[in-house]
């Protein structure tokens, strides 16, 4: 496994590998790797000749009151996990390498952002799309792997790849969960003991909604109300949102039909947790 910190060196390395006929699977991350990332890497390893992992805490996707400075970082641990997962290259650039000048061009996302997490994080997905545009040009992957825990992000990336004609296959990977159902996340370390016990109820509320839909409930408002009632009764967290849309277009629905996403966010004292499920309905 080789660690590369300079974009031009990464590009030259990948060009040489692709000239040799090798396929490239890419897993972009902000580091502090957990089992969810490991699952992405395992899938990439199985489906490609080469696996590239990027570790870059991207400042442009953090708002002024968000946790860029305190976002957990542990490169030594990340290297160990990457090596165990069979990663060939880690791209580990400094901020100055990725944003070395005042930019003349930024990517602005027009659709799929005014709902869910995007509603309260203006500019967040512009930052995501901008850094991914840079990374896609540097890594030149055949396939890029993202976890469905961040389903809105996948919807935005789907639009980015299509609109900019990137020759990349987007591979969504199911959310990796703890034994009690909590979606694995780097931010779970911020939960206090009692909050951690309560946090499993996020997924339980989604499963409650799934069963209700399978039993014939077709009203988005009714499903959202059931989820809210469960969360308010079983957690001390503050419900940030509970929303149901078509997926991946993220358009509102009067009646549940087609492929849908049910998504929620709950704020605990020092952590805001998100979760979702998707369903394909007739």
Please report the number of helical segments: 9
In terms of quaternary structure, what is this? single chain
Strand content of the residues, in percent? 15-25%
Strand order of the largest sheet: 1-4-3-2-5-6
Alpha-carbon Rg, integer:
19 Å
Reported by name, the CATH topology of the largest domain is: Rossmann fold
> How many structural domains in the coordinates?
2
Describe this entry's structure for a reader.
This protein is of the alpha/beta class. The chain has two domains: 2-173, Rossmann fold; 186-281, Pantoate-beta-alanine ligase, C-terminal domain (Pantoate--beta-alanine Ligase, Chain: A,domain 2). It is built from nine helices and nine strands. The chain has helices at 7-19, 35-47, 75-84, 95-98, 116-119, 124-139, 151-163, 193-214, 220-234; strands at 2-4, 24-29, 50-55, 89-91, 143-147, 169-173, 238-246, 258-267, 272-281. The strands form two sheets. It has a six-stranded parallel beta sheet, sandwiched between helices. A three-stranded antiparallel beta sheet has the order 7-8-9, with helices on one face. The model has no long low-confidence stretch (mean pLDDT 96).
Task: Briefly characterize the structure.
The protein is of the alpha/beta class and 282 residues long. The chain contains nine helices and nine strands.
Keywords:
alpha/beta; 2 domains; globular; 9 helices; 9 strands; Pantoate--beta-alanine Ligase, Chain: A,domain 2; 282 residues; six-stranded parallel beta sheet; Rossmann fold; single chain
